[in-house]
Amino acid sequence: MTTLRRSALLTFAAPLALGLAACGDSATTEGEVAEGEPIADIAAPAGQSWADTATVSEYDGYVMGNPDAPVKLVEYASLTCGACAAFSTDAAEPLREEYINSGVVSYEIRNQVHNPIDLVLARLVRCGQPESFHPLAEQVWSNLSQVMQQAQANGPALEAAMSLPEDQRFAAIGEASGLFDFFAARGISRDQARTCLADNASVMAIAQRSEDQSTEFNVTGTPTFFLNGSRVDGTSWTVVEPLLQRAGAR
């Protein structure tokens, strides 16, 4: 059995109740964030703001801001994780306005997949241009209760969708969970979403990367943060912001 096949089976063995046992504070300190002198703002290209700039990293993470920023914040996040939603609620605006737009800080989200809905969401937030990834993820997190309630309200159809062949499964999950309507209201048409989820290889690649990187970086729960390569001991904005400042973003 290939690693990819194992990943697929593990992903779809998740209970329909979508318990979030892996969501929470799992970080432990592996290195101190180096203290640096204050770093001067770095101008964005003419006519642009850094918060509107997005690139895809070698780890298939979506980087908001200056790709060469001297202070790099990475979050391993699940789109069905309440703690990740709480961080987004507290951090999205100040992180974007005060740190990313300065050009000093970049913010990269790498998906960690916990369950079938998580995997479908991870593909759907990638359906547009890279610049839409972070705004769509923020929309999922700000409406997480609605998203999860809608998914669980149609339990029999969702269970049936999960048993379909892989080339039909993901689109059927998107339909049964109400996610097509959710994303259509946010600029990803139903046809576009269906096409994205019909690309079975791209969906399974997300699951594979999640498994591989969780092993490589010992990520056992979400959110887990790394700042300039050092693991952050904590999951809240009140923990992360002082570390950004310590690293020179001030």
TrEMBL record:
InterPro entries: Thioredoxin-like_fold (IPR012336), Thioredoxin-like_sf (IPR036249). Residues 1-21 form the signal peptide. Coiled coil: none annotated. Residues 61-234 form the Thioredoxin-like fold domain. Keywords: Signal. This is Thioredoxin domain-containing protein. It comes from Allopontixanthobacter sediminis.
